[in-house]
Automatic annotation (TrEMBL), chain A:
This is ABC transporter permease. It comes from the Bacteria. It is found in: Cell membrane. InterPro entries: BPD_transp_1_N, MetI-like, MetI-like_sf. GO terms for biological process: transmembrane transport. Keywords: Cell membrane, Membrane, Transmembrane, Transmembrane helix, Transport. Residues 95-305 form the ABC transmembrane type-1 domain. Pfam families: BPD_transp_1, BPD_transp_1_N. Gene3D superfamilies: MetI-like. The keyword Ribosomal protein does not apply. Its main location: membrane. SUPFAM superfamilies: MetI-like (SSF161098). The chain crosses the membrane at residues 9-27, 99-122, 134-163, 183-205, 241-266, 286-312.
TrEMBL record, chain B:
This is ABC transporter permease. Belongs to the binding-protein-dependent transport system permease family. The chain crosses the membrane at residues 34-56, 101-124, 211-233, 269-289. It comes from Lactobacillus xujianguonis. Gene3D superfamilies: MetI-like (1.10.3720.10). Its main location: membrane. One of its GO terms (cellular component) is plasma membrane. It is a multi-pass membrane protein. One of its GO terms (biological process) is transmembrane transport.
Amino acid sequence: MWKTVLRRLLIMIPQLIVLSIIVFILAKMMPGDPFTGLINPNTDPKEIARLRQAAGLNDPIWVQYFRWVGNLFHGDLGTSYVQHVSVTSLIADRAVNTFWLSLLTVVITYALAIPMGITAGRREGHWQGTLIQIFNYITFAIPGFVVYILGIWLFGYTLGWFPISGSVSGSASGFFPVIWSRFYHMLLPAILAAVISTTGTVQYLRIGILDNRVEDYVRTARSKGVPEKVVFNKHILRNSLLPIAAFFGNTITGLLSGSVIIETVFNYPGMGQLFMDSISQRDYTTLTALILLYGILTLIGNLLSDIIMSIVDPRIRIQ
Amino acid sequence: MAKDKKMKKDNSQQVSTPPLGIRIVLREIVKDKAALTAFCIVIAILLFCFVGSLFLNKSQVTEINIAESYYAWGENGHIFGTDEGGRDILKLLIMGGRNSIMIGISVTLISMVVGLIVGIFAGYYGGIIDSIIMRIVDFIQIMPNFPILIVLATVIPNYNAYTLVGMISIFGWTSSARYYRSFVLAQRGREYVMASKTSGSSDLQIMFREVLPNISSMIIIDLVLGIAGNIGVETGLSFIGYGLPITTPSLGTLIGYANDPVNVTTRPWLWMPAAILLLIISLSINYVGRALQKAADARQREN
C-alpha cells in the first residue's frame, strides 16, 4: 500500500518540474517586470535599470528559473504589480472562498449523482431509467456557461430566489447569520455546477451496475439464498462504485477549470475571479502564481484519485 | 509462393472492405427517428448560418451606428433588436453562428488528424513508445486548460481566429489520441493484422491501409462529438472575452452580454437568441453523435 503511494509520489516529481517550466515560460512571455508598477514620470530610467540588475533580471534565463523555483520553496510568490501586497496573502483570501464553493459543489454532485446512477442502473428499461438517461445526455451536451447564465437569469433575477453576486451580504451580522448568508450565496452556483458535473458519475455507476449484475459472483450469491437487498448493496453496488473513485480527480480538475467561468458569472470573489481581474489589470505576478497553483492542485487531485483507487481496489496496486 | 500470394489476396478482399464511414452514418441515422430529427436540425442550422452569411457583408454587420442602439425585439425592422452599437442581433447571430461552427470544425479536424496519427502509433507499437506518448497525453489532459488558454490569449501577439484554433487544438488532440489508441490496441492482435504482417506488409501499410479503415466509424463519431465539444470551448472563451476578437462575431460574445446585470433582465434580446441557438446546436450535434455511438457499439457486440 505505502509502496504504491510512494511510487505515485515519485511520478509526480517530473510532472511538477514540467509544470514549473511551462508556467515560467508563460510568465516570461508576459510583458512587464516587478518594477513596472513603480515607474512614474519622475523615475530615473537609470535607477530602474539598476533595480533590474540588482533583482537579477539580466541574468541568464536558467539562473532566473532556479531562483524563481528557490523562492517558491520559501513560499515567496512575489509582490502584486497592481495591489503592492504579497501575492501569497492575496490568493489566500480568495482560495478560501473557492475551497468552500468547490466543496459544496462536490457534495451536491455526489448527493445527486449516486442516487441517479443507482436508479438508472436498477431501472434500466423503465421510465425512471430512461428519464435519467435523457437528463444525463442534456447535462453532457450543454456547455456549462449557458446553464449558469440561464440559471442566474431564471432563479436569480426573474424569480429572485437566490442572491446574484458576492459571497456574503453586507447586512448579515453575528456568527450564524454570516455563515448562513455565505451558504446561501454559494447555493445557486454550487447547484448549477453540480448538475453539470453529474454526467460522468451517473454514467459510470449505471454501466457498473448493468455489467456487475450479470456476473457469476452475483448469481452465486443469489443461489446461496442471499437476500436481494444484500446482493445489491454488498455485491453489486460496492463493485460499481470503484470507477467513481477513479473519476474523483477529474471532478476536481473540472471544478478548478470551471471556477473561472462560474465565479465570473456569479461575481463570486474566489480564485477564478482573482484570475480574471489579474488578467484585465495585467497583474502578471498574481497571474503566474495562480496558474502554478491551478496546475499543482490538479496534480494533487489526480494523485488523490490514484491513491483512493489503490485503497478501494487492491488489484491495481503497482507492484 | 504462388499459393501465398493467392491467400494474401483472398484475405485482403475479405477484411479490407468494411462499409465506408459515410454510408454507415446515413444508414444508422435514417433508422433512428429521433436521430434523424436531430440530424435535420443540424442541417437546418448549418444552412441558416452558412447560406445566411452569404447574403451579409461582414463590415456592414459589424458597423457601429449609435443612433440605432438598443432597439428591442421587432423594433424598426430588427427582428431580434440591436445592441449598444446599433448592430442587428439577427445578423450577428448568423455571422457568429457561422464563425463558432467553423472554429469548432477546424479545431476538431486538426485534433482528429494529430490524435489519429499519434493514437495509431501508440496503439500499434505499444511498449515504450506507447508509455512515453501516453505520459505526455496524461499530462496535457490533467492541466487546467481553460485558465491556460486565457493566459495564452493575452500573451500571444497578433491574436486572431487562426491562433485561437491552434491554441484550442494543443489541448484537443489528446482526447482523440487516447480514443484511437484504445481501438488500435484492440485491433493489433486481430488475425487480419497478423496475416498482413506475415505476408510482409510494412508497419505503415498495416497501420494506415489495414487498421485505419476498420476504425473509420470511430473517426466519424469522434468528429461529430468533437465538433460539439469544441464549439463549447470556443464560445466559453469568447463568453468571458478571451476567445474571438471583438470585431469577429461569435455566439459566445453575444451570450457574454448577459455578464452585465442590466442586460440580463432588461435586454434579453441581446443574449437569449444566441444562448438558445447554442443550446440547440449542442443538443442536436451531440444527439447525432450518441446515436452513431450506439449503432457502432451494437455492431461491435455482434462481431
